[in-house]
């Protein structure tokens, strides 16, 4: 895993603006978990977590989460043989991006906007208000996994420019049934696990940046890292980051672990990003510094799938 992480980190540092196709083909990450018979590497969630971790550290806009995790897992687990043979090779080679909409959530609705879609007579209608960008749109709806081209795609001008979102509208749009939805929750769980790894990676980078600055910035004749208040702040963040690491690595094992990671890693990232700004002081809120970009990514990530609060509520319903 260290070798994979190091390779991804090196590539991202040298090619921060690489296209998805270039990134995918150079490192093979698009087909990381695609079975070898469909042109992939046949790896597992541990490798996914390693790549996601580095993408989070680099604030990379690469569509790894929606394409290489959600779409690939949806097709692997619920797509029929024809769908797997047609689409998995395309995803594995990085020639197209994809996204997945969950229009049939089984959890109690909360603050997160819902996807209101209906599949009838082979046509899809309704809207999905916040969808990760992807050329191929897969939808879990009405007991099926389907593919459909939206009638309208409205990109948002988002606070977090590293995670583009769009509003998709379907108006009696022809839909191709690719399979059932028996493993929908498993796919969602793997998505939550990958996002948790991204969040943990971002939190780790925020801690590193804060520590580096605390060693360099001097006040009253000594580094600010020598002051007790800064020491305690960074020590608290270090505990959060290590705990987030553990939660993220175990997230793929079960829906319960994913909920724990979703709640903890999302909150840890927000805290680490916020404290990074505090340590940097005035420069931390300027456009020239990356600190605000990490905070914006942490804020937007905390709204994907479920908020930390919704994850905790799900855990409470399961455990109590």
TrEMBL record:
- Report the residue ranges that make up the Acyl-CoA dehydrogenase/oxidase N-terminal domain in this protein: 16-94
- What are the UniProt keywords, alphabetically? FAD, Flavoprotein, Oxidoreductase
Q: Pfam families attached here? A: Acyl-CoA_dh_1, Acyl-CoA_dh_N
Any single GO molecular-function term of the entry would be:
oxidoreductase activity
Q: Which cofactor does it need?
A: FAD
Keyword Nucleus set for record: no
Q: Which InterPro entries match?
A: AcylCo_DH-like_C (IPR036250), AcylCo_DH/oxidase_C (IPR009075), AcylCoA_DH/ox_N (IPR013786), AcylCoA_DH/ox_N_sf (IPR037069), AcylCoA_DH/oxidase_NM_dom_sf (IPR009100)
Which SUPFAM superfamilies is this protein grouped with? Acyl-CoA dehydrogenase C-terminal domain-like (SSF47203), Acyl-CoA dehydrogenase NM domain-like (SSF56645)
Name the enzyme's class. Answer: oxidoreductase
The Acyl-CoA dehydrogenase/oxidase C-terminal domain covers 193-301
Signal peptide region: none
This enzyme's EC code(s):
1.-.-.-
Q: Which family does it belong to?
A: Belongs to the acyl-CoA dehydrogenase family.
What name does UniProt use for this protein? Acyl-CoA dehydrogenase family protein
Taxonomy of the source species: Bacteria, Bacillati, Actinomycetota, Actinomycetes, Streptosporangiales
């Amino acid at each position: 895993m260290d070798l994979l992480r190091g390779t991804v980190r090196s590539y991202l540092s040298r090619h921060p603006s690489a296209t998805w196709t270039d990134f995918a083909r150079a490192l093979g990450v698009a087909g990381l978990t695609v079975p070898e018979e469909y042109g992939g590497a046949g790896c597992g969630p541990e490798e996914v977590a390693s790549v996601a971790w580095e993408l989070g550290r680099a604030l990379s806009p690469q569509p790894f989460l929606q394409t290489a995790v959600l779409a690939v897992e949806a097709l692997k687990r619920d797509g029929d043989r024809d769908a797997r043979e047609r689409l998995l090779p395309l995803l594995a080679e990085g020639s197209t991006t994809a996204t997945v909409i969950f229009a049939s959530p089984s959890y109690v609705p909360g603050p997160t906007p819902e996807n209101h879609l209906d599949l009838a007579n082979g046509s899809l209608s309704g809207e999905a208000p916040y969808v990760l960008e992807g050329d191929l749109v897969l939808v879990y709806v009405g007991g099926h996994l389907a593919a459909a081209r939206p009638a309208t795609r409205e990109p948002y001008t988002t606070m977090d420019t590293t995670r583009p979102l769009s509003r998709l509208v379907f108006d009696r749009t022809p839909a191709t049934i690719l399979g059932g939805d028996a493993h929908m929750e498993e796919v969602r769980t793997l998505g939550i696990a990958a996002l948790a790894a991204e969040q943990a990676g971002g939190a780790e980078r925020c801690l590193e940046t804060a520590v580096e600055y605390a060693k360099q910035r001097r006040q009253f004749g000594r580094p600010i890292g020598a002051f007790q208040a800064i020491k305690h702040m960074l020590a608290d963040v270090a505990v959060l980051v290590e705990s987030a690491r553990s939660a993220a690595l175990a997230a793929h094992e079960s829906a319960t672990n994913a909920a724990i990671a979703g709640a903890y890693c999302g909150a840890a990232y927000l805290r680490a990003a916020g404290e990074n700004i505090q340590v940097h002081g005035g420069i931390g809120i300027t456009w020239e510094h990356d600190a605000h970009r990490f905070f914006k990514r942490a804020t937007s990530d905390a709204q994907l799938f479920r908020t930390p609060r919704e994850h905790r509520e799900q855990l409470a319903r399961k455990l109590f």
